[in-house]
Amino acid sequence: MTKKMLQFVGLEKETPLKRDTKKRRQDFNEIYNEFISGKAKEQSSRCSQCGIPFCQIHCPLSNNIPDWLKLTAEGRLQEAYEVSQSTNNMPEVCGRICPQDRLCEGNCVIEQSGHGTVTIGSVEKYITDTAWEKGWVKPLKIKRELKQSVGIIGAGPAGLACAEELRKSGYQVTIYDRYDRPGGLLIYGIPNFKLEKFVVERRTKLLKDGGIKFVQNFEVGKDKTLYELRKEHEAILIATGVYKAREIDIPGQSLQNIFPAMEFLTASNRKGLGDKVELFDDGTLNAEGKNVVVIGGGDTAMDCVRTSIRQKAKSVKCLYRRDRENMPGSAREVGNAIEEGVEFVWLSSPKNFIGVNKKVTAVEVNKMKLGTPDSSGRRRPEIESGSEYKIPADLVIKSLGFDPENIPKLFNAEELAISQWGTIKIDLKSMQTNLDGIFAAGDIVRGASLVVWAIRDGRDAAVQIEKYLRLKINKKKSEEAA
Ligand SMILES: Cc1cc2nc3c(=O)[nH]c(=O)nc-3n(C[C@H](O)[C@H](O)[C@H](O)COP(=O)(O)OP(=O)(O)OC[C@H]3O[C@@H](n4cnc5c(N)ncnc54)[C@H](O)[C@@H]3O)c2cc1C
Ligand code: SF4
Questions:
Q1: E strands of 249-289, at which residues?
Q2: What share of the chain is helix, strand, coil (3-state, %, to 5)?
Q3: How many angstroms does the Cα of residue 323 sit away from the middle of ligand 1?
Q4: DSSP E strands: which ranges in 283-327?
Q5: Pairing of β 213-215 and β 438-440
Q6: What is 325-352 written as a DSSP string?
Q7: For 72-121, what is each residue's pLDDT tens digit?
Q8: Ligand 1 centre from 299 Cα, in Å?
Q9: Which stretches of the chain score pLDDT less than 50?
Q10: Nearest CA-CA partner of 50 in 111, 98, 122
Q11: Nearest ligand for residue 60 CA
Q12: pLDDT at residue 423, rounded to an integer
């Protein structure tokens, strides 16, 4: 901490007594910004500018990390911002929520040598937050408007990134989304303590100001079929994400107060956004004062346990059938959850839900042991016979992952090709589906993944859509000339 900051919090003698709270807040912001700016510079100057930038290689967007770290260390923040935003449509989002320990930071040479990584994500967040504050982030200015239009289904990171890239080139872009707000999982999935909602809202506003049209509360399949939409645009991108929650088939499923993760997280996010949420307001989806049991070991499960802690749950337990080393979630997130008071019950799997008066009161659990590796190479969990015991629970949250919905059926487009996992099949080079002019990107192609990959896919899809549209125009021109 700087001397000024220590003074402010009263740990240094000369603390000036300031009773004016507005002034105090201003003072705090000033000192805090100074502190963060110092930290960003300090971290950036730790970058060794090594010959092979492993951080950049392991960033899905191939962000030019060494360059923007160097510029930040030299105090050339606006240039750092320009470099950073040239490869990433939402650097402040990635800076906040990328699992950096598995991507850029995990591969930092300084980290590998045991001296602690350069905190790349925090610096990326700092650069873009500063750019917003200073007014360097501006809506797109289109040099040449083009007539061709593209319809994008899904306003998550894949759809938004694709829309921005196509709009930059002058195309008319309309995004259709079944939710009332744009952002996809950025707005209703990821909790506010990881990604503040104003950060998402100011991004989508920027895109609107740049001429991208948003049609909310519009569900493709219900409000229009895929083919109807296709007729209105020269190309379509499907970026609908994956939303079908995986189920656990055990007795007691139908008891009250057992919810899928997205229901719990959406209620909490909507509440934070100021919406009226009946099931939260009447206490059903509010963890306050309850014994909460979350089932699952991925990042969504971590979001549920950490949200429950923030809602002042009486106890929060996370049940996972493998051990800590084999958890799919980010190690950093698990560490955060433990620090906040979450109890992990590793090597445990639910056997049945027990209830009184139709409401869940406990989860009966089997202890597990790890056996031989399965086809994925991970050791298979096996039940230890006679090891059952009960954990009290007033609220159970199921977080076992997501599968794609049946898109061909939902969209009234049975011909749309899908893989054995239900994800949309695309040609990996052209990103086109088996239907002419219909492309797909993000989780609906990859399966549940990461925001940074969705952005990458959205950007790649924009390049391919543009190629397709140009070819179409050239073909038309040569036909007219013939
Ligand atoms: C709880 C949770 C926490 C996560 N935390 C992280 C994290 O910390 N870091 C990270 O990198 N990743 C995280 N992820 C993963 C990340 O959010 C996704 O990989 C990413 O959002 C996928 O982007 P997308 O654009 O493909 O889809 P989505 O973000 O899911 O957006 C799809 C959009 O399509 C719309 N849509 C769907 N069907 C239709 C239809 N028929 N008509 C119209 N619109 C439709 C939906 O309403 C939605 O807005 C998390 C995921 C979850 C569930
Ligand atoms: S986008 Fe993600 S992986 Fe890439 S530099 Fe930023 S935080 Fe690291």
A1: 258-260
A2: 40, 15, 40
A3: 28
A4: 291-295, 315-319
A5: unpaired
A6: GG-SS-HHHHHHHHHHTPEEE-SEEEEE
A7: 999 999 999 999 999 999 999 999 999 998 899 998 888 887 878 889 99
A8: 13
A9: 9-11, 14-17
A10: 111
A11: 2
A12: 98
Residue 443 CB contacts under 8 Å (≥ 6 apart), including other chains: 156, 158, 241, 242, 404, 449, 454
**Residues constituting the chain:** 482
**Residue bearing tokens 């057992």:** 258
**Ligand 2 centroid to 166 CA: how many Å?**
23
Residue nearest to atom 27 of ligand 1 (CA): 241
Whole-number Å distance between alpha carbons of 306 and 318: 10
98: CB partners within 8 A, 6+ apart = 104, 121, 450, 451, 452
Cα dihedral sign for 226, 232, 235, 238? negative
Instruction: List, for residues 158-214, the tens digit of each pLDDT value.
Output: 999 999 999 999 999 999 999 999 999 999 999 999 999 999 999 999 999 999 999
Strand partners, 352: 364
| Rounded distance from Cα 181 to ligand 1 centre (Å) | 13
Q: Identify whether the C-beta of residue 122 lies closer than 8 Å to the C-beta of residue 95.
A: yes
pLDDT for 331 = 83
What 3-state DSSP class applies to 46? coil
pLDDT of residue 189: 98
**What sign does the dihedral 426-430-436-438 (CA atoms) show?**
positive
Residue position matching structure tokens 């989780």: 443
Burial of 136 (0-12, 13-18, 19+ CB in 10 A): middle
Ligand 1 touching residue 466 (CB < 6 A): no
pLDDT at 32: 67
Strand order in the sheet with 315-319: 258-260, 395-398, 291-295, 315-319, 343-345
The 3-state DSSP class for residue 53 equals coil
